[in-house]
Design goal:
384 residues; alpha+beta; Helix Hairpins; HSP40/DNAj peptide-binding domain; 4 domains; four-stranded mixed sheet; three-stranded mixed sheet; 11 helices; 25% strand
């Protein structure tokens, strides 16, 4: 049986190397000899395992002290990590890629996790976290303006009432999953690549319950409807999302809950169009009101108001009613209401009305129709 190589020689560092020097050396060599970069190369694979074993010992102060004193003999008889196994003290070869791509093994998203669809950087609590959920909620424009509360029902996997989310019967014990060695992930080959995937046996928890709960089959959660009360703020807009923290699915075996994301859909209104915090509407006015001036009743979300119309108002003229629009989200300010007046033309006239209107038209002439006069002056210039 060949003797083990010196750990310092494997990592190509001196015996007085600092922990940071050891980490840098390991990073460099682990990337060089990783099986993905050397497919089918048994020698590179063996060196990669050697690197993991050496790093596991030399990066740990206690193991390193024992190694410096006793050499490889310090780890015989099942001691600290000389066998390159996956015991409690063994080094995880994927850690180096979490550090290279995403920081020193901390929680949160990193490139390793995004690419491989998970990862072990966040600890078992994150690994067992429940899924986020989406719920689409439709409300009226009036509800969006005033704010409201809504009771919704969401069908989701929630904590099992029989086992309290633990996943096991009374007296049950959790043992390390033999398929993944407690990592919660297994490697699968995809051509030249090896991909880390959630372990199908333990469902990513890293543990197996010896006496699983009969109701939830050891998962710690069951499908059931859940009643949730939502508070919709004033000024919410179509397409916005509200997050209800912890109202997603329960985590596996007591893991933290996911979140519920509510996507808001504001119904189209029969009268008002919306542009951010501004509202717009069209209001018909009579020919006589447009000509002589007067007041027009205009609807708003808070009730009716009177709009003064000056004599000679043209069809399509827009008036602004300040502060009569939608409330701005998380603000005491309001948008405006833009009112476009449309002059109505009578569709039916009796003989008397027609006669008087013809007399009126004859008495007007072109001088009293500025828009008409301007248009035809431009037309004559165009055709001349």
């Amino acid at each position: 049986m060949a003797s083990k190589r010196d750990y310092y020689e494997i990592l190509q560092v001196q015996k007085d190397a600092s922990a940071e020097d050891i980490k840098k050396a390991y990073r460099k060599l682990a990337v060089k000899f990783h099986p993905d970069k050397n497919p089918g190369d048994a020698s590179a694979e063996e060196k990669f395992k050697e690197l993991g074993e050496a790093y596991d010992v030399l990066f740990d102060d206690q193991k390193r002290a024992a190694y410096d004193r006793y050499g490889h003999a310090a780890f015989t008889q099942g001691g600290g990590g000389g066998g390159g196994g996956r015991g409690a003290g063994a080094h995880d070869p994927f850690d180096i890629f979490r550090e290279v791509f995403g920081g020193a093994g901390g929680g949160g998203d990193n490139i390793f996790e995004q690419f491989f669809g998970g990862g072990g950087g966040g600890g078992r609590g994150d690994r067992n976290r429940g899924e986020d959920l989406r719920y689409d909620l439709q409300i009226s424009l009036e509800e969006a303006a005033a704010g409201c509360e809504k009771d919704i029902e969401v069908s989701k996997r929630d904590r099992c009432g029989d086992c309290g989310g633990a996943g096991g019967e009374r007296g049950a014990k959790a043992v390390v999953c033999r398929d993944c060695g407690g990592r919660g992930q297994v490697l699968s080959s995809r051509g030249f690549f090896q991909m880390a995937q959630t372990c199908p046996r333990c469902r990513g928890t890293g543990q197996i319950i010896d006496k699983p709960c009969k109701k939830c089959a050891g998962e710690g959660r069951v499908n059931q409807p859940s009643q949730i009360k939502l508070k919709i703020p004033k000024g919410i807009e179509d397409g916005m999302k509200l997050r209800s923290t912890g109202q997603g699915e329960s985590g596996v075996r007591g893991g933290p809950n996911g979140d519920l994301y509510v996507v808001m859909h504001v119904k189209e209104h029969a009268i008002f169009d919306r542009d951010g915090s501004d509202l717009m509407c069209k209001v018909p006015i009579s020919f006589t009101t447009a000509t002589l001036g007067g007041e027009v009743t205009v609807p708003t979300l808070s009730g009716r108001v009177q709009l003064k119309v000056a004599a000679g108002t043209q069809s399509g003229t827009t008036f602004k009613l300040r502060g009569k629009g939608m409330p701005e989200l998380n603000s005491s300010l309001h948008g405006d209401l833009l009112v476009q007046v449309i002059v109505e033309v009578p569709s039916k006239l009796d003989s008397e009305q027609r006669k008087k209107l013809e007399e009126f038209a004859a008495s007007m002439g072109e001088d009293n129709s500025p828009m008409h006069k301007s248009f035809f002056e431009k037309a004559r210039e165009f055709f001349s």
